[in-house]
Amino acid sequence: MPAKIIDGKAFAATVRAQVAEHVTKLKDAHGITPGLAVVLVGEDPASQVYVRSKGKQTVEVGMKSVEHKLDAETSEADLLKVIDDLNNDPEIHGILVQLPLPKHLDEDLVINSIAPEKDVDGFHISNVGLLGTGQKSMVPCTPLGCLMMLRDHHGSLSGLDAVVIGRSNIVGKPMAQLLLGDSCTVTIAHSRTKDLADVVRRADIVVAAVGRPEMVPGDWIKPGATVIDVGINRLDAPEKGDGKTKLVGDVHYESCAAVAGAITPVPGGVGPMTIACLLANTVTACCRANGLPEPEGLTA
Ligand SMILES: Nc1nc(=O)c2c([nH]1)NC[C@@H]1CN(c3ccc(C(=O)N[C@@H](CCC(=O)O)C(=O)O)cc3)C=[N+]21
Ligand SMILES: [Mg+2]
What is a single Pfam family found in this protein's UniProt entry (predicted)? Predict the structure, then answer.
């Protein structure tokens, strides 16, 4: 039986609708508009496209969107000043500094200068520690989106074998924490893992987040397993015409879809859920800042 395709694009639309509903409530009952600030340093074209689509979706759900575009040579002190102003701005509930930053900036220092309660990426060391100890935190958007899709598909994740391929602070490690929180048996695999194929073959849930195009073949997948593909890799696609490109994930879609029970496509899987969860985190942060009840089902 071919895999069920988990439609992240459609799922993200339902998450945004829930966010929009909560935003309306905050405005009508309390006169509060959640605000999200995105800080982009440098002119990377891919980042600019991505930041624009975040800004557009932020406005569509009724929130305030602020963009700070700083040039590539911005000093660390100037960037920290922008962040400090946003930390102290009562109309801003969420702050995202687009990564990666230009080399001369200390990424850890910059991220840890964001007020933890406004850190809608969930990358601040306080949020990492809170998540790791099962306390209320801001949860990184990509793993949160993956968790929502997994819970929706499986109901309970309790007791399932999960293998996360990739150990980044942005996806792999927080994903493992969330799966552990839902009582999975979790393995984090990476480029040095011995017998990766055999490790992956045990998994009921495979989350691929390595950034290597199509590296997971179908014969690594246990029949019926759920495959969550976090990779977004742009490759040349001469077969589509001169200079054309295509997006592929970290799993080889055709062969994995033939054995998996369910799979997320690229594009239209994890990517749209990441942005939807950014909006969800911003509403959550706004509610916490104002001592109001949080939206249900939009946090871990
Ligand atoms: N502080 C920070 N937080 C981030 O969350 C963050 C970041 N920096 N830097 C860059 C990456 C990248 N990222 C994406 C999110 C959604 C799509 C997305 O929606 N992709 C569409 C396809 C878009 C296309 O066609 O290119 C999809 O998968 O269907 C892509 C990429 C968030 N990032
Ligand atoms: Mg890494």
Answer: THF_DHG_CYH_C
CATH of domain 141-272: 3.40.50.720
pLDDT tens digits, one per residue of 140-185: 999 999 999 999 999 999 999 999 999 999 999 999 999 999 999 9
- Return residues with CB closer than 5 A to ligand 2 (ion): 168
Where the chain has pLDDT below 70, the residues are none
Ligand 1, atom 32, lies closest to the CA of: 274
Is 121 a residue of the active site? yes
* Ligand 1 atom at minimum distance from 123 CA: 1
State the pTM of this model: 0.98
pLDDT at residue 274 in the model: 98
CATH number belonging to the domain at 30-116, selected among 3.40.50.10860, 3.30.70.250, 2.20.25.110, 3.30.70.2750: 3.40.50.10860
Residue 191 counted as an annotated binding residue: no
The tens digit of pLDDT for each residue in 196-220 reads: 999 999 999 999 999 999 999 999 9
Domain residue extents for the chain: 30-116, 141-272
SS (H, E, C) the chain: CCCEECCHHHHHHHHHHHHHHHHHHHHHHHCCCCEEEEEEECCCHHHHHHHHHHHHHHHHCCCEEEEEEECCCCCHHHHHHHHHHHHCCCCCCEEEECCCCCCCCCHHHHHCCCCHHHECCCCCHHHHHHHHCCCCCCCCHHHHHHHHHHHHHHCCCCCCEEEEECCCCCCHHHHHHHHHHCCCEEEEECCCCCCHHHHHHCCCEEEECCCCCCCECHHHCCCCCEEEECCCEEEECHHHCCCCEEEECCECHHHHHHHCCEECCCCCCHHHHHHHHHHHHHHHHHHHHCCCCCCCCCCC
